[in-house]
Amino acid sequence: MDYVSTRGSAPVLDFASVTLAGLASDGGLYVPRDWPVLSRDEIADLAGLDYVETAVRVCAPFVGDVLGEAELRSLLGRAYASFSHAATVPLVQLDGQHWLLELFHGPTLAFKDVAMQALGQLFERFLSGSGRHLTVIGATSGDTGSAAINALAGVEGVEVFMLHPKGRVSDVQRRQMTTVLTPNVHNIAIEGSFDDAQALVKAMFNDASFARRFPLSAVNSINWARLMLQIVYYFYAAVRLGAPERAVAFSVPTGNFGDVFAGYVASRMGLPIERLVVATNENDILHRALSAGDYSVGQVAPTSSPSMDIQVSSNFERLLFDLHGRDGAALAATMQGFEATRAMAVPDAMRGEASALFASARVDVDSMAQTLRWAQDKCGQIIDPHTAIGLAAAKRHVGAAPMVTLATAHPAKFRDAVERACGIRPALPARVAGLFDREERYAVLPAELGAVQAFIAERARPADAVAA
Ligand SMILES: Cc1ncc(COP(=O)(O)O)c(C=O)c1O
Ligand SMILES: N[C@@H](CCOP(=O)(O)O)C(=O)O
């Protein structure tokens, strides 16, 4: 499988190179040259397969001949051995219409582990014996950072620099990052928002001399491999609810548009998805874009679902690429206009095309809290605020198809917000016991490119350094 940039002018790469590259050199995002399609029979054959086997079948067309099937299977087997639930991502029925897909049984208690545990394995595999090393730079509103640090701490040849917005992640999220004192992990609290942190990461990739000096790689969903690994659970859930005979709908708490874009890819691959609901909190740029064509950036508002406090949703560019008929030059011009003005009007024709699959909803804090209490009172489930936003949106858009809300984080990660909403303070699971007894280490830096680059340059290994 070949990968092309959404902006049309970066080199075409294979799966191994695209995994190690992160952002494309023309500022775009890599996508497969074509969407592979699974036949109805191939989808039907997924019924009854465990998670690892489902992942092998779904990922194989994207991996191509870069890894053999047996090697892919053993790599994914190692990745998902760290999950605490036998089903890896169990489906829980709430009532006659609604299900939760619990994606938080990995080591850091959020859906990011599903992709990140495997991405760590892929990095190790592609670096092993190559003499290469990587400087991984990432931006996090809390969950990507903890998952990446768990997956990459101590990995030979990898140095991790993780930027989080100071004071805008939960205490559990922060400690899951800052108490990892392994020498290859560097946490940076940025005086700004997640968007500032994400812009700094992109600026470092786009700074040709910095990118030549340090072999940069990404763990955010700008990295294609992250998204590929998230497509799997749409298939896994849908076949359990009757696909391909029966269509299924999904509601996805959304920030960077990565998770819901993975659902879009599943649909392009032939999975019968009746509807994909894009659920936002008060940071509603995606809801405005899909419902009114208004993709204009406002101030990031801090909310009780902090992992979704995002305005510039990186992966929206991947959808726009398809909506522009995969014309990279046209999209590059659109994105340049957006980057200059911080606003874009999504034309009605494109919005119409998107609305064949996507619906959207903006869920405010009261509606989030009400839904969280509904799940507790009526269904006996304590859910986290991000999942509650997904579920509230699901209730607005439920139709004939079973509606699956992605449960993206364990409630204990956001125990203050859960307690405020329903009066119950969820206990921390045993696997994160001792989190509050450990020493923390992180640097605080202004949201300035020079300051962050200087910090990284002092600690990262330059491209021409010989591997140890
Ligand atoms: C708990 C949680 N829910 C939802 C999201 C939104 O996912 P995405 O950014 O892929 O849209 C995030 C962060 O990305 C998250 O950490
Ligand atoms: N919510 C995320 C933000 C980054 O998203 P990503 O999927 O692009 O890595 C987080 O928790 O860090």
UniProtKB/TrEMBL annotation:
Pathway: Amino-acid biosynthesis; L-threonine biosynthesis; L-threonine from L-aspartate: step 5/5
Domain Threonine synthase N-terminal: 3-80
Pfam families the UniProt entry points to: PALP, THR4_C, Thr_synth_N
One term of GO molecular function: threonine synthase activity
Class of enzymatic activity (EC top level): lyase
Domain Tryptophan synthase beta chain-like PALP: 98-347
PROSITE patterns: DEHYDRATASE_SER_THR
Matching SUPFAM superfamilies: Tryptophan synthase beta subunit-like PLP-dependent enzymes (SSF53686)
Keywords tagged on the record: Amino-acid biosynthesis, Lyase, Pyridoxal phosphate, Threonine biosynthesis
Reactions performed catalytically: O-phospho-L-homoserine + H2O = L-threonine + phosphate
EC number: 4.2.3.1
Domain of life: Bacteria
Keyword Amino-acid biosynthesis applies: yes
Biological process, per Gene Ontology: threonine biosynthetic process
Cofactor(s) needed by this chain: pyridoxal 5'-phosphate
Location of N6-(pyridoxal phosphate)lysine modifications: K112
Membership in a protein family: Belongs to the threonine synthase family.
Official protein name in the record: Threonine synthase
Organism the protein comes from: Polymorphobacter multimanifer
